Amino acid sequence: MPLQSVSNYWPLLVYALAVLGLIALMLGLSHTLGQKRRDPATHEPYESGIVPTGDAHIRISVGYYLVAIMFVIFDLEAVYLFAWAICVRQAGLPGLVEASIFIGVLLVGLIYIWRLGALDWGPHRQNPPDRQKK
């Protein structure tokens, strides 16, 4: 039995060797056909046709990262709901209840981050000090 089970894996071995051969071929061709001269501009960063100026270490607001993370979270919500929408008839009532709970939890999370002010993009205004009544 062990000899028969080993013989079933020969396509996997052939595939692995083909992948390794293709990788070696691409690396060898890029080394052979690639640019040989070294200009000072070769090691300069180049982004979308714009030559960079100034320091690359700039401070970016945490709000930017917060919005990016929230986008990823709520984008995944759409992926899960799309998968549920495809099999809505097979899922039946239990699937509807589970999807409703899922949407409810995400709605609570959205309300929470809204109340925290994470969705406020405008400049932060300071509240004027309370005026004392005389």
From TrEMBL:
Say which enzyme class the record assigns. Answer: translocase
Q: Which Pfam families match?
A: Oxidored_q4
Which E.C. number(s) belong to this protein?
Answer: 7.1.1.-
Q: State the superkingdom.
A: Bacteria
| Residues spanning the membrane | 12-29, 62-86, 92-114
Which purpose does this protein serve, as stated in its record?
NDH-1 shuttles electrons from NADH, via FMN and iron-sulfur (Fe-S) centers, to quinones in the respiratory chain. The immediate electron acceptor for the enzyme in this species is believed to be ubiquinone. Couples the redox reaction to proton translocation (for every two electrons transferred, four hydrogen ions are translocated across the cytoplasmic membrane), and thus conserves the redox energy in a proton gradient.
Name this polypeptide is given: NADH-quinone oxidoreductase subunit A
The family classification in the record reads:
Belongs to the complex I subunit 3 family.
UniProt entry tagged with the keyword Ion transport: no
Q: Where in the cell is it found?
A: Cell membrane; Membrane
Record field: catalytic activity: a quinone + NADH + 5 H(+)(in) = a quinol + NAD(+) + 4 H(+)(out)
Q: Does the keyword Transmembrane feature in the UniProt annotation?
A: yes
Q: How does it assemble?
A: NDH-1 is composed of 14 different subunits. Subunits NuoA, H, J, K, L, M, N constitute the membrane sector of the complex.
User: InterPro entries per the record?
Assistant: NAD(P)H_OxRDtase_bac/plastid (IPR023043), NADH_UbQ/plastoQ_OxRdtase_su3 (IPR000440), NDAH_ubi_oxred_su3_sf (IPR038430)
Grouped into one coarse class, the protein's main location is membrane
Q: How does it sit in the membrane?
A: Multi-pass membrane protein
Which keywords describe this protein according to UniProt? Answer: Cell membrane, Membrane, NAD, Quinone, Translocase, Transmembrane, Transmembrane helix, Transport, Ubiquinone
